[in-house]
Amino acid sequence: MNGRILIVDDEADMLVLLSRIIKEETRHQVTTENNPKKALSLFKPGIFDLVFLDLKMPGMNGIELLRQIKKIQPDISVVIITAYASIETAVEAVREGAFEYITKPFERERILLTIDKVLQWREMVSENISLREALAEKEASGHLIGSSRRIKILLDQIRQVAPTTATVLITGESGTGKELAARALCQFSLRKDKPFITINCTAISENVIESELFGHVKGAFTGAWKDKKGLVEIADGGTLFLDEIGDLDFAMQTKLLRLLQEGEFKPVGGIRTLKADIRFIAATNHNLESDIQKGVFREDLFYRLNVIRLEMPGLSQRREDIPMLAHHFLKKYALLYAKNIHSISEDTLRTLSSHVFPGNVRELENTIERGVVFCRTHCLEVNDVFAEGNSRGSEAMETEADFLTLPFREARNAVMNRFYRQYIQRLLQNSNGNISRAAETAGIQRQYLHRLINQAGLEPEE
Ligand SMILES: Nc1ncnc2c1ncn2[C@@H]1O[C@H](COP(=O)(O)OP(=O)(O)OP(=O)(O)O)[C@@H](O)[C@H]1O
Ligand SMILES: [Mg+2]
């Protein structure tokens, strides 16, 4: 990769020396500037890959210039060069986002190696979209991380059950990896190259779920201007993952039962019955046995689904997996946010391992993601992960506009989390904790509200 390098130093000799080293040994493009203010005015996003900065310059010091150009292009790689070697300035420069720190006098090799390192790093980051996809795929293929006894037993069960066509019911608390397990079941099965179709039974409203699942014929209802295949037909030969099955409305449960029993279904408005060859996997965080007692879940459907039961252990039952998971998520988010963070401090690992995560692996993942966002060194420290302000995106926002300075995803999550918590809290207060009434007031399904309450970590009694 041919890089574009900017060198800023008030000493002309230094500019000459550096650019000569680079030009003699590499094919990178070099621009030099001896006035920091001019350098700033010429700096535009995307025109340089790497900036060498002198630390002491008249008019504006290197750290200040570093801050300014980072504002213009947050992902710019900056290497500080200075004769004033001191650990504090080095740390400060790295804190402000410098990639590295080189002290004068330096060896030719040191400069060339640093350039290589930076450009390689940038190349990796620019491939980050494909890497991200690779990562997503790895996850999609059911990459369950962990080496605890519980996770080993689970993986064994998955391998045993996967090649059969038996229906599997996956249960477990929110965020324990039910969806990941479902994908693993597909990945280890003979149907791995066939469609894997997910239906989220909560997200789809009652009146569209039937046509969504079974399709419809032309003219079945207003707007049905041609035949449309349902997800069941699309999944034919493959796997159908019924996520959040506990939220499926009662009438649909009956229709689903028929599909499970006979392998038959009828498109909405159609007269012909169709057949489908499908492997079913269902997941829920409800206690279906008690839902049956309450009369909201069909017992016969439950027995159809509960042929093989996989129980996902909560994170508290496999604490020893926390370090491994934490490193896995560190890699993922360092890549995603293009940050050069490669380790987690002992202290952080210890704190994480004794922390309670009611939201299980998902919450641990969010915690690490936040840590990566706030981390300003190469190592994830306790303060990055558990600092007062960082702990929850929403509470980190002191004033209305605080989120404006956060990275996009962080900002969106912060605003959304706050919205959910406040909205639901108010809703529950007004209905004295009565969920049915709250759902009615809000104009949403009861089950959906339940899910939101869980996600926001609220109790209906609150
Ligand atoms: N063992 C694991 N290894 C790696 N990542 C995991 C593991 N378990 C869960 N995750 C990650 O945690 C997040 C939540 O997992 P998933 O969506 O499968 O949970 P879930 O049980 O379906 O949760 P919910 O009930 O809230 O839908 C995902 O990002 C997933 O990749
Ligand atoms: Mg899920």
Q: What is the general shape? A: elongated
What number of structural domains do the residues give? 3
CATH superfamily of the largest domain: P-loop containing nucleotide triphosphate hydrolases
Query: What's the arrangement of strands in the largest beta sheet?
Result: 2-1-3-4-5
Uncertain residue ranges: 390-400
Describe the structure.
The chain has 462 residues and is of the alpha/beta class. It folds into 3 domains: 4-126, 3-Layer(aba) Sandwich (Rossmann fold); 139-313, Rossmann fold (3-Layer(aba) Sandwich), CATH 3.40.50.300; 319-455, Helicase, Ruva Protein, domain 3, CATH 1.10.8.60. It contains 21 helices and 14 strands. The chain has helices at residues 12-25, 36-42, 62-72, 87-95, 108-126, 128-140, 149-161, 178-187, 206-214, 231-234, 250-262, 288-293, 299-305, 322-336, 346-354, 360-374, 382-386, 393-396, 408-430, 435-442, 446-455; strands spanning 4-8, 29-33, 50-54, 77-82, 100-103, 168-171, 196-200, 239-243, 264-265, 274-275, 279-284, 308-311, 343-344, 379-380. The protein has a 5-stranded parallel sheet with strand order 2-1-3-4-5, with helices on both faces. It has a 5-stranded parallel sheet with strand order 7-8-11-6-12. Strands 9-10 form a two-stranded antiparallel sheet. Strand 1, helix 1 and strand 2 (29-33) form a beta-alpha-beta unit. Helix 11 (250-262) packs across helix 13, helix 14 (322-336) crosses helix 16 and helix 20 (435-442) packs across helix 21. It is elongated and about 85 Å long. The termini are far apart. The model is unreliable at 390-400 (pLDDT under 50). The site of magnesium ion has 3 residues, from helix 8.
